Amino acid sequence: MAAPLYPGGLIEIQRANLRALLRHLFREKGTWIAVAHAVSFRRSVVLAFMDGIEPGHMALARSIARTVGLSLDDALTGKASPRKAPALVLVTPPKRKGGAS
Fold first, then answer.
1. Which among 14, 66, 19, 17 is positioned nearest to 38, based on CA atoms?
2. CA 41 to the chain's CA centroid
3. In the 3-class helix/strand/coil scheme, how is the chain assigned residue by residue?
4. pLDDT tens digits, residue range 24-75?
């Protein structure tokens, strides 16, 4: 396994797994501001991590894992998928009152 860039840091595969979880949160929340609010970090920190400008750190990793409902180890190793997508519900059209349907 490759060594982190600095003691206590993240290696590239861990950063890639965390970025995948952040993309999942973005699809779920709709904006990077909402993602940043959910993980309790500034949007600039989240986007710098997503763009590879910042290498990330364990506090960010813990917060991402907690937000998607995974253990830190599962989030870093990519072993578990993020929260399940909501079940699809079939919607039936409303019945018309009177007249031909």
1. 66
2. 13
3. CCCCCCCCCCCHHHHHHHHHHHHHHHHHHCCHHHHHHHHCCCHHHHHHHHCCCCCCCHHHHHHHHHHHCCCHHHHHHCCCCCCCCCCCCCCCCCCCCCCCC
4. 999 999 999 999 999 999 999 999 999 999 999 999 999 999 999 999 999 9
Phi-psi region of 56 (alpha: psi -120 to 50; beta: other; left: phi over 0): left
For the segment 75-83, the average pLDDT, to the nearest whole number, is: 75
Contact 68, 75 (CB under 8 A): yes
**Residue whose tokens read 């396994």:** 1
**Token pair of 30, please?**
């709709």
